[in-house]
Amino acid sequence: MTDRLLARRGNLTRWMGLALVGFVVVMAAVSFVWQPYGIEAIDPTNTNTGPSVDHWLGTDPLGRDIFTQILVGSRTTLFVGVVAVGIASLIGVPVGMLAGSSGRWVNETVMRAMDIVFAFPAVLLAIILAAGFGGSTLTAMIAIGIATVPVFARITRAATLQVMTSDYVLVARSYGRRGVPLMVRYVLPNIASVIIVQASVAFAIAILAEAALSYLGLGTQPPTPTWGRSLQEAQTYLFINPLLPVWPGVAIALSVLGFNLLGDGLRDALDPTLRER
Amino acid sequence: MRPYLRWGALSVTLYLLRRLGIFLLSLVVASILAFVLLSLLPGDQAQTMLGVNADPEALAQLREELGTNRPILTQYTDWIGGVIRGDFGLSRSDASIGSEIVRRLQVTLPLVISGMTLATIIAVPLGTLAAMYNRRLPGTVLSVASQVGIAIPAFWMGIMLVTWIAVRWGLLPAGNFPTAGWAETASAVRSLILPVTVLGLAQGAVLMRYVRSAVLEVLNADFVRTARAKGMTLGQAMRRHGLRNAAIPVVTVLGLQLATLLIGAVVIEQVFSLPGLGRLLLDGVGNRDIPQVQGIVLVITGLVLFINFVVDVLYRAIDPRLRASA
Questions:
Q1: Residues whose CB falls within 8 Å of the CB of residue A97, separated by 6 or more in sequence, listed in order
Q2: Which end of chain B is least crowded, N or C, by CB within 10 Å?
């Protein structure tokens, strides 16, 4: 009985992932039409209260509604994630396809260049950008996006190498298809599933990176609420309100879990060869 | 000596030289990137030091002293020449950046290395178990635990540990690395227990996934089936043939993780107020101390590239198939 249930884990993973991701998306969407309180609305008579009917998750030391902060914070999380993964895939996928379909020299040079980019992780890039421009949503998105390029490039290259040896590519080439048309028409559709799975996993990593940057004060600046900065603020008030850091952390963990599970579930669904495991 | 052995040795040497060349070249490119990116950023150093309303003559004089009015190439060659001799220049507060980096590494390196060790101690046995009990209850429980562990941000775990273990129950200090450093060994060790736990658990959860899939791969491999057919138990077959093969992808991941941990330490040092390299870096950004940031960025990227180089070489060393086809 349990064995049969466990055997269908792939499906369950996918649905749980989809549900969690859907939940975050709905939160962000709802925050545009409805917020229980203003994000900057302070209520000095109602500070550090626990969860109640009025304040679902309680209030912080300034008397701000924590639920509102979390609700609105989901926007930044998704926005940064979408743009960062967009940057990473728009650069990484063409670079990977170029490396995977070219001769040894181009392949080697491109991949070694990617190794160098890899030596500048997101947090380090964000710090470099912050040193000049100050931290902002934009610098965080660029830093996370650029730092994720090598991941997409590597995965795309490996998939392209494999597809290039297939019969249908051979046939297409014998008909004179070369370069970009060959890539777009024959290679890309066949490596798309790998890229989609990677995008989901990269999204999860981007959420973690964004949270860390906001926590360090290198990401989105006040008054826009972010989960990471809520944690930084919570840390200042640990002695007064130990429940404060719980909620933003739960929000981050659930979204990361959602995108990771979605990625795993999609992998199982899109790649039948892995289903045995 | 049989001739093919000598050819093997030659090709290994050639491979090592090639990798070393790539490593050094990458290091040069990374140093140029670190220097040029930070030098070309808006915000003139002299202007930041003297303020917006500074006298133009004083500004020009300070630029002269700092050397920021020279061509960027000259600035770079001067800087990198100094770095090669171990001289990273002076910070805004006139302290030697090089010796400060060395001092801070005495906190960061033990943190990263102990974190990695703890992660390995957690991940290797649990990941192997998760693979052996795949699709049964223990395997599923372990996989779920690892998924949850990956999703939890390390710095959040740090804040929670500080809240409960340090603030509420007062069991361990929330950081407070002693000012005397490792001279006060006992309190230095105590202050690192929570940060190391956080890094080890967070990284262990990620590593466990890789160990699990590496062991799963091996479990389905033909050579394990052959070993079973020769009468070995699964445990014997795994110990004799399996784990050795599973180690190859795991070592690669360990290397990549070491790089991730180095960056993770930057954030964790902030959570526990540890005087490590990450703190120095963030302080440098806060003070717009560009030379200090340049030096630390170079050290961190250099370490990451060096780790990649070592992993590549180790990869060859533990996989004889790759050694033969070098």
A1: A156, A157, A160, A183, A187, A188, A191
A2: N
